[in-house]
Amino acid sequence: MKKILTILALFITATSFATPTRLLVRVKAKDAKFIGTGIGGAYVVVRNHLSGDVLSKGVTTGASGNTDLIMLSAHQRNQRLTDAKTAGFEASIDISEPLLVDVEVTAPLSRKNAAVNGSTQLWLIPGKHIEGEGLVIELPGYILDILSPTTHAFLTLPASGSLTVDVKASLTMLCGCTITKGGTWNADDIEVVVLIKKDDKPLREQRLQYSGTANIFSSPVALTEKGAYGLSVYAYDPKTGNTGVDNINFVIQ
């Protein structure tokens, strides 16, 4: 009984000095806004660096932020780009001494084919909250989806010997922000290209053009042979280095 009381006393002593310490984590798309509820949020995990134990986990919620402020205005040092509505995840961690933590994020959560990971480390100090702008982790990339042709479609080669396939893809920023001609995220700045394979051998590549509808790029592709085809569509912005890829397969019979 005495031993149990001693252990209990040590536990109470150790935990009584633990201080709840708040860490606000935000995830921002490169050359765009914050990743929040509108695109499924970002999954956040905070770990003890030494032990690997998960201290907190959750999903960023909230809005993507003010476009004019984030994208179209000059910024000064320490200027806030966020407010109470901007997407974030707040962890509350009880610590009794400075602790090095790993912060890992995956986003966008609702678009697994486009999701990418990011991570960083920082020291948490008991009672010294990291709030306001919080800890911001930036993720590069695009959300790219091939809309046409559909996955594993079977198409018939006509008697003329030439089949026109309408290759169509949807492209958005990682935060879900729209891409349009001349817009804040300008379609003219982004190369969208389809790479075509036949029977697993490179055939050719072709540029997709902005369709006039937000986020949609397309081009007719003429194919003249039966076989198993693979399409890879990539997007690349040489100014920012943002990239995105999607792949499908279909058959011409």
Write down the CATH topology of the largest domain: Immunoglobulin-like
Unreliable parts: none
Secondary-structure class: mainly beta
- What is the strand arrangement across the widest sheet? 9-16-15-11-12
- The helical percent reads under 10%
Inertia-based shape: elongated
Q: Report the CATH architecture of the largest domain.
A: Sandwich
Largest sheet entry:
5 strands, mixed
* Overall average residue pLDDT: 94
Number of strands: 16
First CA to last CA: what distance? 81 Å
CATH class of the largest domain, named Mainly Beta
Tell me the domain tally.
2
Number of helices: 2
Q: Please compute the radius of gyration using only Cα atoms.
A: 24 Å
Strand and helix order: HEEEHEEEEEEEEEEEEE
The portion of residues forming beta strands comes to over 45%
Question: Your description of this structure?
Answer:
- There is one protein chain.
- This protein is mostly beta strands and 253 residues long.
- The chain folds into two domains: 138 residues, Immunoglobulin-like; 111 residues, Immunoglobulins (Immunoglobulin-like), CATH 2.60.40.
- The chain has two helices and 16 strands.
- It has a five-stranded mixed sheet with strand order 9-16-15-11-12, with no helix packed on it.
- It is elongated.
